[in-house]
Amino acid sequence: MASDSPVGSVRTDAAPAPRGHYSQARTAGDLVFTAGLGPLDPVTREIVGPGDAAEQTRQVFRNLSAILAAAGCGLDDVVKVTAFLQNADRDWDDYDSVFPEFFTPPYPARLTAGADLGEILVEIEVIAHRPAPA
Prior knowledge:
It is built from two helices and six strands, in the order E-E-E-H-E-H-E-E. The chain has helices spanning 53-70, 88-102, and strands at 7-10, 25-28, 31-34, 78-85, 109-114, 122-129. Helix 1 (53-70) crosses helix 2 (88-102). It is globular and about 45 Å long.
């Protein structure tokens, strides 16, 4: 959970635990910066949707949504998406088709690039702006 300090960390069991020395997300004032997340089931750590870029993208957004909720915001508060596709030419359409399931216009700014991701097809990180407390 985010703290009241200007810089904090976010941790939830509803998203995959980090495999290394990094946080699921960090907060800096009203901004939330997530780690890059893959399509892992938070409990089993198994890859969801092997070979299916659309299903992997859905799982990544479910994981990101859980982390953002723990930070006090949601996908509607995302201002920037940075995504990596194992094969941008092959997987772009499937990946892009999932966005309207999780976002509404105006869509976040976005960068999508190809990367060597090992066994997964999609990895995504986001920056979100937490709304002011009511």
